[in-house]
Structures are given as C-alpha cells and as structure tokens.
Amino acid sequence: MPQKTNLLVVAAVGGSVFAMHFGGSCMLWPVTWGQQSGSSVYIAYFGIFISAIVFPWLAYLAVAKEGTLFRIASLSVNRTFAQVFGGLTVLVLGPLFAIPRMSAAAWDAICQILGLDYSPLPALLLFTIVYYSAAFWFLYRRSQVIDKIAKYLLPVLVITIVAVVTRSLISPLSQRVEQFYADHPFTYGFLHGYQTMDLPAALMFATLVIAGLSDGYNLKDRALNRYLVLTAGFGFLLLGTSHFTQMLVGASTGVLFTDVSYARLYATIILELWGPVGGAIFNVALLFAALTSAVGLGGGTASYFEEASGGKLPYVACTAVTLLVSGLVSMVGLDEIIRLTAPILDIIYPPAIVIVLFIVIAPGVKRARAGAALAAFAWGLFEGFYGYAAMFGAGAGLGIIRSLLPGAEAGFGWVLITLLGALVGHFVFGGNKLRLDRQEERLFINDDGISEAKKPGKQIPLGRAGSHTKE
Predict the structure, then answer these.
(1) DSSP one-letter string for 112-147
(2) Residue-range definition of the domain harbouring residue 302
(3) Is residue 449 part of a domain?
(4) Model confidence at 431: pLDDT above 70
(5) Under 8 Å CB-to-CB from 222, ≥6 apart: which residues?
C-alpha cells in the first residue's frame, strides 16, 4: 500500500472523473453561460463553482465516508428509502433520460459531420447499435472502465478544449457586454450550475472510480478513501478550469450569435475560429464526450442495481439491460421522453444534496439527517407532481401552494421544508446521540463480494469506499 500520494494515479483517474462529468451538458453549457453573463462572467462563475464544482466533489467525499449511493441512502433513512430514491435517481440519470440524451447528442454530431439534414432510420439504427456496443465494451469489466476512459476518450476532450480556448482568448471575437439576464450573476450561476445534476451523477460515478482504484492500483481501506477524494478533487479542478475558460470564450462573443445557444453556439464559435475543419473536430469531440458520460452513467446504474438486489442481478447483465433500454429510448420519441421525465429531476436532486451535506458537515446528527432527507424527498415528490400537473394544464392550485414557500419559484422551495424536517427528525426521533433503528439494515459483503442486508455476523461491514471488494 503506497504511503505517499502517487501523482500519476491521481492524474490518470482524476482525468477520467473529469471526462465523465464533462460529457454532454458540461461541454456545451459553459459557453452559453459566459455569453449570457458578459462582463459579469466572474461573479456568475463563482456561483457555478459552488453548485457545479464544490457540491459534486463533496459527493465523492460522502462516498469515501459512508459508501455507495445505495448504502448512503440506506443509512440516511432505511433500505426502502434507498430502493425508491436510489432507483429513481439511477433510472432518470441512466436509461430513461441522461444516457439516451447522450446518444442523441452523439447522433446529432454524426449528422453534422456527414451533412445530413434528417435522420434516416437505417442509419440511426446502425449508429445506435455501434454506439451502445462501444459503450458495452468500455463497461463490461467494471475495474477497467476508468483506465479505458483515460486512454481513449480523455485525450480527445482535452485537446478540443485547449484548442478552442487558446484561439479564442488570443483572438477574441468581440468585446464583453452587459449581462443578458435580470438576476444577480451569482444567483444565475448557482442555479445553472445546480441544474447540471453533477452531484447525483457523482454518487453513481464513484462506484466506477472505486473499482478502478481498488483493482487497477490495489488500493484498500484508508488509502482507497484518500485516493477517491484526491482523484475526484483533481477531476473537478480540471472541470472548474474548463468551465471558467469556456465561459470566457462565451463572454468574448459580445452581441454576436445571440440567436443560438448551447451546441449551436459552441459549433458556431468554432466554425468562426477554425473553419469547417474545426467544426468537424468539434463534432468528433462531442461524440466522444457524450460516449464518456454514457459510459459513466451506465456503469453507475448497473452497479446500483447489482447492489440493491444483493447480487441477484449481476453487474454485466445489468449493464446489458441498461444499455438496451437506453438504446430503445433514444430511438423512440426522445423529445417526448425528456419532457415526461424532466419533473423527476426535481424529485431526486433535493434529497441527494441534503444527504451529502449532512454526511460532510454534520455526520453525527443521524436523526436530523433522516428527517431532512424524508422532507426533501417529500417536497421533491410535490414538485414532480406539480410538474406533471402543469404539463397537462392542471397545476394552478398546486402552483399557488408552491408559491407560498420562499425560493420555490427559483427551485429552492425544498430548503425551508428540509430545515423543518431536520428539526422534526431530531426531536421526534429522540436526539442525535441515539442511532436510527437498523433492524437489518446494516449492509455486509458476502463471500462473492456483494453487499447484503443481514444481522451482524462474520461478514465484513460495507461502510466506506475502502470496504468495497473487486469486481
């Protein structure tokens, strides 16, 4: 077991952490954030740094302290909560929303490269088979996922960012102008960084990072915990730098290209700076970025269901089913699927951020954490129900109730509810010196390396990242 920090390990695995979070939205959104922030770009970035960099990194710290998403949720409330909340999280960030969105973005990049104005079904079917076959190749051995990302996907992403940022900062396209929005720049940045959903995604990616560190570098126990935190920190240092420099690129566009945003804005800037060749390279990079995130989310989904089933659903089988469902969803009405699943995002994020902050800041107040997590989840369910009702034109009454809570319109209605839930949990459950009733619900690793819920015996407790065994 190494006594000193191996910087090469931190760089390699941390680069993979960056790549998994960078794919898709984190590649495309910062340029638009910068364009809309203009001369207020630095203040807006500070808000983004807090919600999109610091908070997700804290999720890895929480995993190092208490274990996987399933275990964290189980210890916060109970196993049933872990199955419901965790299941919703991985389904939405996995096969029902985020992974199909990644492949749709990749297909759009292919169409741009080939100059296709429409999506021929045979070509789309062929692409889908190849794309998800490639994803399965990355995923079928969990311990090798991180290493493969570092070798094959990370270099393309880094080269693209460096090329775009360097050229733009040396030759700015325009002068910065006033911000385009009425909000305070910090508020704008915090809310948009919050919407990247990188915190719950981090709880899923951490499983792959743990497998890569434990099997690839033979790290165990405290060393594994330490490297998990360090590699995630390095990955988010890269991501924070990427966000900042790309926001500067967007701010340098001034009043140019204000009729486009996100992928189209990024592509337009690259075409302006590098011409058609640059546009083709950008689309290749987008393809690789989307594949990287899809790999991370697919592995996190499979690992969760393997653990939640007590090993009855093997990782490889879960991976195959996850990718199959994702491929089908990506081909049949993706826009409608996104519209129908979007309210679920409001359900899962509040409990995720509450649980992570409690583990990091106040790990000893177990009962307050349980009350806060349940309250945040209850509010998330209300928000989700309101979202579906409003979708069908029937949410007026719920909207009135929602507007009564401070911050609800900005997406922070859960804050007051969570504080009340923490107080109720703390006092009703009897104070923080007592442990929650875990009739069961301690998790152990059996002889096959799979976590189970059993009474204490000879099994090894699955508490921290270092307690994970290899695939």
Answers:
(1) HHHT-SS--HHHHHHHHHHHHHHHHHHHSSGGGHHH
(2) 7-332
(3) no
(4) no
(5) 466
Does 359 map to a domain? no
Q: What is the phi/psi pair of residue 210, to 5°?
A: -60, -45
Tell me the pLDDT tens digit for each residue of 300-337: 999 999 999 989 999 999 999 999 999 999 887 656 76
Q: What is the bridge-based pairing of β-strands 451-453 and 460-461? A: unpaired
Asked if the structure places residue 294 within a domain, the reply is yes
Q: What CATH number should be reported for the domain holding residue 85? A: 1.20.1740.10
The number of angstroms, rounded, from the C-alpha of 123 to the middle of its chain's C-alpha atoms is: 30
| pLDDT of amino acid 180 | 93
| Pair of tokens at residue 345 | 């995002």
Closest by CA to 168, choosing from 317, 268, 33, is: 268
- DSSP letters spanning 172-210: -SS-----SSSS-HHHHHHHHHHTT-HHHHHHHHHHHHH
Q: How many domains are there within the chain?
A: 1
Query: How many whole angstroms separate alpha carbon 216 and alpha carbon 376?
Result: 37
In angstroms, the CA 82 to CA 360 distance is 19
- Name 461's bridge partners: 444
pLDDT: is 22 or 341 the higher one? 22
Confidence of residue 429 (pLDDT cuts 50, 70, 90): low
Identify the CA nearest to 203 among candidates 42, 80, 355. Answer: 355
Torsion angle of C-alpha atoms 417, 421, 427, 429, degrees rounded to 10: 170
Which two structure tokens, joined as six digits, stand for 412?
Answer: 């922070």
Cα separation, 2 vs 465, in Å, equals 17
Q: Two tokens at 333?
A: 């009405």
Residue 119, in any domain of the structure? yes
What is the distance, to the nearest Å, from the Cα of residue 78 to the centroid of all Cα atoms in its chain?
Answer: 23
Listed as own residue / partner, the contacts of 407-416 with beta carbons closer than 8 Å and 24 or more positions apart are 410/187, 410/191, 411/191, 411/194, 411/346, 413/379, 413/383, 414/350, 414/354, 414/375, 414/376, 414/379, 414/380, 414/383
DSSP structure class, residue 49: I
**What is the C-alpha to C-alpha distance for residues 119 and 167, in angstroms, rounded to an integer?**
33
| C-alpha distances out from residue 83 to 24, 152, 320, Å | 27, 34, 21
Q: For the whole model, what pTM was predicted?
A: 0.86
Residue pointed to by tokens 């319109």: 409
Tokens of 293: 């995130």
Contact 51, 262 (CB under 8 A): no
Maximum pairwise Cα distance, the chain? 67
Which of these, 411, 306, 422, lies nearest to 373 by C-alpha position?
Answer: 422
Evaluate whether 315 touches 145 at the Cβ level (below 8 Å). Answer: no
Q: What is the radius of gyration, based on Cα positions, of the chain?
A: 22
Count the Cβ atoms, other than its own, within 10 Å of residue 195. 15
